[in-house]
Design a protein that fits this description.
Elements (H helix, E strand, L loop, with lengths): L1 H8 L9 H11 L2 E3 L5 E3 L16 E2 L4 H9 L28 E2 L15 H5 L11 H8 L8 E3 L14 H13 L4 E7 H4 L10 H12 L3 E7 L17 H9 L4 E3 L5 E6 L14 H22 L2 E6 L31 H14 L33 H29 L4 E2 L8 H4 L2
Parallel strand pairs: 5-6, 6-7, 7-10, 10-11
Antiparallel strand pairs: 1-2, 3-4, 8-9
Organism: Triticum aestivum (Wheat)
InterPro entries: BES1_N, GH, Glyco_hydro_14
EC number: 3.2.1.2
Length: 442
């Protein structure tokens, strides 16, 4: 990866570059000034905010509805925002976790029939002294777009394990409240473990069909999240969403379908990328299972996409739906700032590693590093990641290139098939900051 930055990004990184060198190079490329002591600041003044009608697009796709609506309840109708405002303020009742997954995206102006009110209407529930402080950060991204769409996540407990809408009237009441706050739409998780729960390739969409029909009544838009992982925790209504039952049955005889750490502990939140091309899921590969699910969704709700009700589709790519290895699971005892562990010890990942080592002519490289520490180790405490450690050896570079290559190959295949399945629909993915660990840790 460092070699790629040097070759394709023209970054002048030193021979033994660390994460600080990479961040400094990226900051300089973005126009920031970086001093030798690490002090970093913008080289030119931050652009001022445009007039209200020129606000750009941002999608708050992970705000749980109770927190979101309670925070907006206190807002009063405000006056237009001064175009020279330098910062927005945040309500103290909003927790950091409520704001940690804001997705900045390009505003689509197609199919405006579903709740796309004017920019002035989208702001009339906020006072000028209560707007989000983050505007100074995002201002540069908003200048070329006229609107700020806001989406609030619906709780995952509204659909039960039999794919039934639990309480339609409660959903209507919630949507009515959101509509009064001038939100543009809602985020709905479509869980693989619910839709294809019992039998392979038998998809049950009835609960989601009913839910989308109610959302359509309120002329709100929908961002759909296709979740190929388990929830990992109880959601609203005490619902624990696991992988499909037939997958769990397969795992009783073959636990290597899950990511595995060096000690042999399995992470059952999602399937290992090692089976992306292995026909171990009742005759299908992991990639084929994902594609069949996406194609079934598209065939079921294609008309809603064409009408503009469904504005975007987020495709899950790994743990928590994010493009990352499950390297830092709390259930394994990980705590920040531990570096985590490599998740490449299932039979299929090891098979792939062996083939890659044979191709390079070094069969003894077909192993994971034995000095990379444990979940709560620090980089400097390990022989692999410390300054001048094995990560920079011939074997270390081979292993890290292989490990990151598996991730890149997975996202490339899934998104290629998603583009085919959804026939030009807007596709969203979630990329986590933990990808940085590909440079400094598992």
């Amino acid at each position: 990866m460092l070699a790629g930055l040097r070759q394709h990004g023209n970054f002048p990184l030193p021979a033994r570059a660390d994460m600080n060198d990479v961040l400094a190079a990226l900051a300089r490329a973005a126009g920031w000034t970086v001093h030798p002591d690490g002090t970093t600041f913008l080289s030119s003044p931050q652009p001022s905010l445009p007039p209200p009608a020129q606000f750009g697009a941002f999608q708050a796709t992970s705000l749980e509805t109770p927190v979101f609506t309670n925070s907006l309840n206190s807002y009063a109708i405000g006056t237009p925002i001064d175009s020279q405002a330098s910062a927005l303020q945040t309500d103290d009742s909003l927790s950091p976790s409520s704001l940690d997954s804001v997705v900045v995206a390009e505003q689509s102006i197609k199919n405006e029939s579903y709740g796309n009110s004017s920019s002035a209407n989208s702001l009339n529930c906020m006072g000028s002294d209560q707007l989000l402080r983050a505007s100074a950060v995002w201002a540069g991204d908003f200048t070329k777009t006229p609107y700020i769409p806001v989406y609030a996540s619906l709780s995952m407990g509204i659909i039960n394990c039999y794919c039934q809408l639990v309480d339609p009237e409660a959903v209507r009441a919630e949507l009515r409240h959101l509509k009064s706050l001038n939100v543009d739409g809602v985020v709905v998780d479509c869980w693989w473990g619910i839709v294809e729960a019992w039998t392979p390739q038998k998809y049950e969409w009835s609960g989601y069909r009913d839910l989308f029909g109610i959302i359509k009544e309120f002329k709100l838009k929908v961002q759909v999240v296709l979740s190929f992982h388990g929830s990992g925790e109880c959601g609203s209504g005490g619902v624990l969403i696991a992988l499909p039952r037939w997958v769990i049955e397969i795992a009783q005889e073959n636990q290597d379908i899950f990511f595995t750490d060096r000690e042999g502990r399995r992470n059952t939140e999602c399937l290992s990328w090692g089976i992306d091309k292995e026909r171990v899921l009742r005759g299908r590969t992991g990639i084929e299972v994902y594609f069949d699910f996406m194609r079934s969704f598209h065939m079921e709700f294609r008309s809603l996409s064409e009408e503009g009700l469904i504005s975007a589709i987020e495709v899950g790519l790994g743990a928590s739906g994010e493009l990352r290895y499950p390297s830092c699971p709390e259930k394994m005892g990980w705590r920040y700032p531990g570096i985590g562990e490599f998740q490449c010890y299932d039979r299929y990942m090891q098979k792939n590693l062996r083939q890659s080592a044979l191709t390079r002519g070094h069969l003894f490289w077909a192993r994971g590093p034995d000095n990379a520490g444990y979940y709560n180790s620090r980089s400097h405490e390990t022989g692999f990641f410390c300054d001048g450690g094995d990560y920079d050896s011939y074997y270390g570079r081979f292993f890290l290139n292989w490990y990151s290559g598996i991730l890149i190959d997975h996202v490339d295949q899934v998104l290629s098939l998603a583009t085919l399945a959804f026939d030009g629909a807007a596709i969203v993915v979630k990329v986590c900051y933990i990808l940085v660990h590909l440079l400094v840790g598992p």
